[in-house]
Amino acid sequence: MSEFATVYQIAMADVTNNDSVKMAEGERSAEELKEKANKYFKDKDYDNAIKYYTEALELNPDNAIYYSNRSLAYLRTECYGYALADATRALEIDKNYIKGYYRRATSNMALGKFKAALKDYETVVRVRPNDKDAKMKYQECNKIVKQKAFERAIASDEHKKSVVDSLDIENMMIEDDYTGPKLEDGKVTVKFMKDMMHWFKEQKKLHRKCAYQILVQVKEVLAKLPSLVEIVLKETDKITICGDTHGQFYDLLNIFQLNGLPSPSNPYLFNGDFVDRGSFSVEVILTLFGFKLLYPDCFHLLRGNHETDNMNQMYGFEGEVKAKYTAQMFQLFSEVFQWLPLAQCINGKVLVMHGGLFSEDGVTLDDIRKIERNRQPPDSGPMCDLLWSDPQPQNGRSISKRGVSCQFGPDVTERFLDQNKLQYIVRSHEVKGEGYEVTHSGKCITVFSAPNYCDQMGNKGAYIHLRGSDLKPEFHQFTAVPHPNVKPMAYANSLMQMGMM
To answer: What radius of gyration, in Å, describes the C-alpha atoms of the chain?
Structure first.
């Protein structure tokens, strides 16, 4: 062998050794990053956990465990679309990685894709026939799939009767031993509202007759409203805008304590997601509906993505209503939610909606006015976007981190506002550490009013004051108050409790 060939071989061996050393170092530091991420995850700091899992993946992009771990962190932050993508990637890398199937099933469940979830649970059960947890999840998911098929089979869309038609509220008896609040001549009064809130605070249940009266009456009020409600604030007027409350009744009482009870001189707008997750959703929604009946023109409610059947089935509201009342009452809640307006315009300048802007340009206020809202939201289109979309810092649009609708950039916001002669939008839908966030050069404001969300996020809550004189938002922050020892998600679907909390 020539001297050159020998030198070449030695050089190549050095390169190979160097590459191996570098790879080993890369894997080692990727492991260190993963451990760091795991610590953050344990401390419920999911944003930092995601950051370090991502850095680990940059060093070692073929590790199924890193993807699976990041998938769970995304689930905890409700980024179901990203969670699904990571779980899928983990399985592409290693199709025998069982945790990947679990994660993907949970992501699909969270998105209401029950058949896809069932397929993954089937795989887990096949591989681990003695795994009790897997078997239970499979059975639970199978039950939902069958229930959905049954509901579709019996739904005759055109002639579906309202629950109201089958109620005989007049003849419902209020038992002598019930000492709680009652409507006066069938009407909500200020005294009734104060008594009801106090009754709820004591963890007592409103009589079903009163609950039905509120629901039937509020359905009538909401059904008369347009999909886009338009209000005018006079120079001296002020309105308070609140974001998600998510069944956190004691924090809702705190808002009223800090900011005053609703009244004609103290109007409110609650921007969707009143129910689910928090385990006092019935108390929250009956309080909000009661105020809507008391002050129909100055107490405003918009629909959120959680005022929908799929979400209520997964995240606790359906289970809570059935536990505290009946399945029939949940059906009536479902009907009422379908009549909640989708957006509100203040002085023709500020547009408020739960989610955000649209998957395509050119949508006008008139298009929002024309939305037929009395239904479960479709998977795409303007109604879906109003309930589900989120802002992003970069221009353009991208696939939603949630797996529904889209994310929209500052340029999208700018064009929409210009076309509709608006100043800015206010939306909710996302937990923010400070309770609010101002993005897109001040033109997209997020407000979130459930502090220490799910008893674990440590965030502040906030509400906004808007005055007719200048429409300049004033932010007010508050922290969580104690509540009785009932955990969030106590009534949620057991799959959600096991997979996510």
So the answer is: 26
State the Cα–Cα distance between residues 455 and 440, nearest whole angstrom: 30
Which residues, 6+ apart, have CB-to-CB distance to 398 below 8 Å? 392, 406, 407
> Rounded to whole angstroms, how far apart are CA atoms 471 and 484?
38
Helices (H) and strands (E) in the chain, counts: 18, 14
Strand pairing of 444-447 and 228-231?
Answer: unpaired
- CA atoms of 35 and 188, how far apart (whole Å): 56
The C-alpha atoms of residue 365 and residue 352 are separated, in whole angstroms, by 12
What is the SS3 string spanning 16-59?
HHHHHHHHHHHHHHHHHHHHHHHHHHHCCCHHHHHHHHHHHHHH
The answer for 478, left when phi > 0, alpha when psi is -120 to 50, beta otherwise, is beta
Are residues 303 and 354 in contact, defined by beta-carbon separation less than 8 angstroms? yes
User: What is the residue-wise DSSP string for 64-78?
Assistant: HHHHHHHHHHHHHTT
Which residues are known catalytic residues?
306
Scored b (16 or more CB within 10 A) or e, 23-50 reads eeeeeeebbebbebbeebbeeebbeebb
Q: Is the pTM of this model over 0.85?
A: yes
> What is the total residue count of the chain?
501
C-alpha span between 465 and 81 (Å, rounded): 33
Question: pLDDT tens for residues 231-289?
Answer: 999 999 999 999 999 999 999 999 999 999 999 999 999 999 999 999 999 999 999 99
Q: At what angle do helices 190-201 and 249-259 cross, to 10 degrees?
A: 130
Sign of CA dihedral 380, 385, 391, 396: positive
